[in-house]
Amino acid sequence: MSEAYITRISIFLPNEAVPNDEMEQYLGYINGKPSKSKAIVLRNNGIKSRYYALTKEGTATHTNAEMAALAIKDLFANAPEELSEIDLLSCATSSPDQLMPSHGVMVHGWLPETDSIEVVSPSGVCCAGMHALKYAYMSVKIGEKKKAVSCASERLSPVLRAGQFEDEVQQLIKLEQNPYLAFEKDFLRWMLSDGAGAFLIENKPNPEAISLKIDWIEGCSFANEEEACMYMGSDKESDGNLKSYKDFSPEEVLDKSIFSIKQDVKLLGEKIVKLGFVKLQNIIAERGLDMNEINYFLPHLSSFFFEKKIEDFFIENDISVPKEKWFTNLASKGNVGAASIYMMLEEVFNSGKLKKGEKILLVVPESARFSYMFCLLTVC
Predict the structure, then answer these.
(1) Cα–Cα distance for residue pair 155/12, rounded to 1 Å
(2) DSSP conformational letter for 247
(3) Where is the Beta-ketoacyl-[acyl-carrier-protein] synthase III C-terminal domain (predicted)?
(4) First-to-last CA distance in the chain?
(5) 236, 148, 156, 254: which is closest to 196 by C-alpha?
(6) Residue 376: closest CA among 252, 254, 212
(7) DSSP 284-347
(8) So what's the pLDDT on residue 166?
(9) Is the pTM of this model over 0.70?
(10) What does pLDDT average to over the chain?
(11) Across 153-169, average pLDDT
(12) Superfamily of domain 5-209
């Protein structure tokens, strides 16, 4: 089999960074009042700025597919003619612009410089970006493709705007209940960000700069054991099952804000670190991975709240990953879902600090129904 290397990484961030005190200027005020949960959530998640593909008036500045295409084009900024050499496009998102056609072909539509090529669209949430990478990695490794691009992008800001919740708020007022949305719905508004990232995966390292050899990628799901924790386009019933938006009337879809993103916060806190990092323990044992050899540890964090939980797990289980080896840019980029790991790796890759032979461990948890992806890279 061939080897597979990440030879270039690029990202696209829309517009200017939005600081915490300007968020509601973009997302709006629910029921005309500032959020009660905003300060609490921001204090816990540690995010200082994020990016939105919209104006303060709510007008879209980019589509999701467009941002992905812009990140891909930036891979070839110094050699745009190479766009025609791409033989695979693997595009992931949890927030496509439409249900049909697939997100991947919509991205391809923004890339007229490319040829008629294979396009795939891994779905999911945070792990989807890693699924896109794994498809590209395997395609190159078995020799089917030579120049594959994987990308991940998110445009969630439109569904975070206050207007998405106003109908439900009015229903609550009519019923003389608390006019504020439940914490499970409100808290994700202060965490999510827009943007895109892209990797170029080839069967040979870049002769002019560093590359990252993909040693392995491994994933797992605990959906056979756990109910959904984060969901959209559905509602959770008392038995833990999800009821699809297709099974609600149009009026109920609006009244219950079915297309808002919801998070079972209690389930998240109990499960997200425990499940994933026990799996990492198993991978360490099965692959004979020496954690002392890891130079960079890149965990995708939805909130800095989980950083201490991961650190405690490592200490309790005698896993050596000193904090100086950790890297995240959550504070400056926000949680960009499937694209977060691309944002993180891009910053490390283009920092000028990597040395040949160093090893990078990527860990991506997904709370939707508790899935995880792990990847080991070697600088070459």
Answers:
(1) 12
(2) G
(3) 285-363
(4) 18
(5) 156
(6) 212
(7) HHHHT--GGGEEEEEE--S-THHHHHHHHHHHHTT----GGGB---HHHH-B-GGGHHHHHHHH
(8) 65
(9) yes
(10) 93
(11) 82
(12) Thiolase/Chalcone synthase (3.40.47.10)
Is 268's pLDDT higher than 50? yes
| Tokens coding 196 | 């895109």
CATH topology identical between 5-209 and 216-232+262-379: yes
Average pLDDT over residues 320-346: 97
Supply the DSSP symbol for 233: S
Q: How far apart are CA 378 and CA 355, in angstroms?
A: 10
Q: Is the peptide bond before 101 cis (omega within 30 degrees of 0)?
A: yes
The span from the CA of 298 to the CA of 293, in Å, is 14
Rg (CA), the chain: 21
Q: CA-to-CA distance for 95 and 92, rounded, in angstroms?
A: 9
Homologous superfamily (CATH) of 216-232+262-379 is: Thiolase/Chalcone synthase (3.40.47.10)
The span from the CA of 368 to the CA of 372, in Å, is: 10
Phi and psi at residue 330, to the nearest 5°: -55, -40
Distances (CA, A) of 82 to 112, 199, 340: 13, 14, 26
pLDDT bin (cut points 50, 70, 90) of residue 180 is very low
Q: Residue 134 and residue 140: Cα distance in Å, rounded?
A: 10
Q: How far apart are CA 308 and CA 312, in angstroms?
A: 6
Whether the per-residue pLDDT at 177 is higher than 90: the answer is no
Q: Could you state, in order of their start, the residue ranges of all structural domains in the chain?
A: 5-209, 216-232+262-379
Whether residue 169 is predicted with pLDDT greater than 60 in this model: the reply is no
Beta carbons of 373 and 298 less than 8 angstroms apart = no
* Closest to 345 measured CA to CA, from 236, 140, 198: 198
What pLDDT is recorded for position 370? 98
Contact of 349 with 180, CB cutoff 8 Å: no
Length of the chain: 380
What SS3 string covers 92-145?
ECCCCCCCCCCHHHHHHHCCCCCCCCEEECCCCCCCHHHHHHHHHHHHHHCCCC
